[in-house]
Design a protein that fits this description.
four-stranded mixed β-sheet, alpha+beta, globular
Length: about 170
């Protein structure tokens, strides 16, 4: 938390570059991005296990968390959530790893004021909805946001946030 107090603004550019780097390292070039397509590449950097757990493990709070035990990192997600929520929550937790936020629990909040959460959200959005991929799909004729959300296997809300933050809504 001390580091967060010292930040004057979220490091969104760093988060976006980290997501782009992971996609490049995994040699992925089209949507949808599936976490299992990334796992071999992720494990080159982190000893990570990703697993769905019952809702009761979260006591009604949160959708995912990252815990470190020694050199082993565990990302658990609430298995009772929708597929799109589980995907974004897992990508969000991966963002915490790649940006260096290895400090306890985390949850998805697209409107969070916490710099760490904003950075993890930016990472997740760029990992699951890379702007270059979106631009290409929009220019190829996919103009309906519902169709884009379905193709990228994300929620419509997450898609709109990404379209606005990248100014791609202007070419829809």
């Amino acid at each position: 938390m001390e580091e967060e107090k010292q930040k004057s603004s979220p490091r969104l550019t760093e988060a976006r570059h980290a997501a782009k780097g992971l996609l490049k390292a995994a040699k992925l070039s089209s949507a949808p991005i599936e976490i299992n397509q990334l796992i071999t590449t992720i494990r080159q950097t982190f000893d990570v296990t990703i697993k769905g757990v019952p809702n009761e493990m979260f006591s009604g709070k949160g959708d995912a968390m990252t815990q470190a035990r020694g050199n082993c990192i565990f990302i658990i997600y609430n298995d009772s959530r929708s597929v799109v929520r589980k995907r974004f929550s897992t990508a969000h937790e991966l963002g915490h790893l790649y940006i260096g936020h290895l400090h306890g629990n985390s949850s998805l909040d697209l409107n969070s004021d916490s710099f760490d959460e904003m950075e993890a959200n930016a990472f997740a959005a760029h990992l699951l909805m890379p702007p270059d991929f979106l631009r290409k799909d929009i220019k190829s004729g996919i103009k309906n946001p519902e169709d884009l959300a379905k193709k990228y296997n994300v929620s419509l809300d997450a898609l709109w946030v990404q379209l606005r933050s990248t100014n791609l809504f202007k070419i829809l």
